[in-house]
Write a structure and sequence with these properties.
Structural class: alpha+beta
Largest sheet: 5 strands, mixed
Strand content: 5-15%
CATH topology of the largest domain: hpI Integrase, Chain A
Number of strands: 8
CATH superfamily of the largest domain: Intergrase catalytic core
Number of helices: 16
CATH architecture of the largest domain: Orthogonal Bundle
Order of helices and strands: EHEEEEHHHHHHHHHEEEHHHHHH
Shape: elongated
CATH class of the largest domain: Mainly Alpha
Distance between the termini: 78 Å
């Protein structure tokens, strides 16, 4: 068994999943077992010639310092020839504490964490300060059933996902055997149908009327809508752009944090450059290009100005549709939209990789086709 200095950084870096035990260089008898889903602090020593083993807790719910401190107390008893009593079971966290620990351990983005907190506070508020052990109670299953029957399909999907992920995390880290309540309900046929992807509302033939309405908006609002249409960026990716993400010299727009966790970048085309130079003028690196613009209300503003009904995500779907119609490959479209290839597509998931310049021509073709849809139909209207 390797002898190392057990530390927080060591456990964060460790990728071992084979059950090996690392012994501590500082405190003899203290160690940690590295399994696929757990990092378990333990004591392995002897008392009056008899082997003694004790499990202390799981990292990261118990820090290295806390585990070493507890181990020191137990090992002191062993050295004195006294058999330590079984460790008292660790107190389980509340759902509020568990949600915070899960978000921290998984590296959930602040925007997603805010959404999770809002969802749990609004629909599971009575349970936030109760022990996570209660997630397996009949009472909680009944609460989830009422939630699933009275809320919209999309909201139920989000709640189901958060609670299910939380249950898996607690089982792995605390050694519990909780069953996901929504999985129980689904097995009994008590869950509503899953939500279906929303069909695109804004059609290519609607673009002239959309353009006429958008041109009546303020400059910032107008630029945000056109940039979204030209790039297919997700709503928050475009709305939260900062000056530091725009390299006008190199001709690259960068998105370091995205929905799928993969950094994204796009070439700056002439149509994009016109907007970005205007928006970047006079800004510092950390200034937002669209500060003060509410992405949530932007489509409503355009519709009040005469636009057909739409949502910002429709603009992203239009980019995908136009790209498909002009014959761009699925690999190029995935790179432009920052989508990941299916797990079964080993070639494109693990081998084929396109850089910024590889999709410049494709993106310019999409924007040219989009421009024709805007102007040609506009002339006919």
């Amino acid at each position: 068994m390797p002898i190392v200095l057990i530390s927080e950084s060591l456990l964060r870096r460790s990728t071992a999943t084979d059950g090996r035990i690392l012994r501590d260089r500082v405190l003899c008898g203290f160690g940690v077992r590295l399994n696929a889903r757990k990092r378990t602090f333990l004591i392995a020593t002897s008392v009056c010639g008899r082997q003694f083993r004790m499990m202390l807790g799981y990292w990261p719910l118990m820090t290295v310092d806390e585990a070493r401190s507890r181990a020191l107390e137990v090992i002191r008893e062993c050295r004195a020839g006294r058999m330590p009593s079984a460790a008292a079971p660790l107190a389980l966290p509340t759902m509020r504490e568990a949600l915070a620990a899960y978000c921290e351990a998984k590296g959930i983005k602040p925007s997603s964490r805010k959404r999770y907190d809002s969802m749990m506070r609004t629909h599971f508020g009575d349970w936030l300060d109760r022990s996570v052990q209660d997630l397996g109670s009949r009472e909680f299953v009944e609460h989830c059933h009422a939630f699933a029957q009275t809320k919209g399909a999309s909201l139920v999907e989000v709640g189901r996902g958060i609670v299910g992920a939380l249950v898996k995390y607690l089982n792995a880290v605390h050694g519990l055997s909780l069953e996901a309540p929504f999985a129980k309900l689904a097995a009994a046929g008590l869950m509503p149908d899953r939500s279906q992807p929303r069909a695109r509302v804004l059609q290519e033939t609607d673009l002239p009327a959309w353009k006429m309405a958008v041109d009546k908006l303020g400059e910032k609002q107008r630029d945000l809508l056109y940039l979204t249409l030209y790039t297919g960026l997700r709503r928050n990716e475009c709305r939260e752009l900062r000056r530091a993400q725009i390299d006008l010299m190199a001709g690259v727009l960068s998105i370091p944090e995205t929905k799928n966790g993969k950094p994204h970048s796009l070439p700056i085309t002439p149509l994009m450059r016109e907007i970005l130079e205007r928006r970047c003028n006079g800004l510092d690196d950390q200034d937002e290009l669209f500060a003060g613009v509410s992405a949530e209300h932007l489509s409503d503003m355009a519709m009040r100005a005469g636009s057909p009904r739409f949502m910002l995500h429709d603009l992203r779907k239009l980019v995908a549709t136009v790209g498909e119609k002009i014959g761009l490959s699925s690999a190029v479209m995935r790179r432009i939209l920052n989508h990941t290839a299916p797990k079964t597509d080993v070639l494109h998931r693990h081998y084929v990789g396109f850089g910024v310049e590889d999709v410049r021509d494709g993106l310019e073709q999409i924007q040219a086709a989009m421009g024709l849809l805007l102007t040609d139909t506009c002339q006919t209207a």
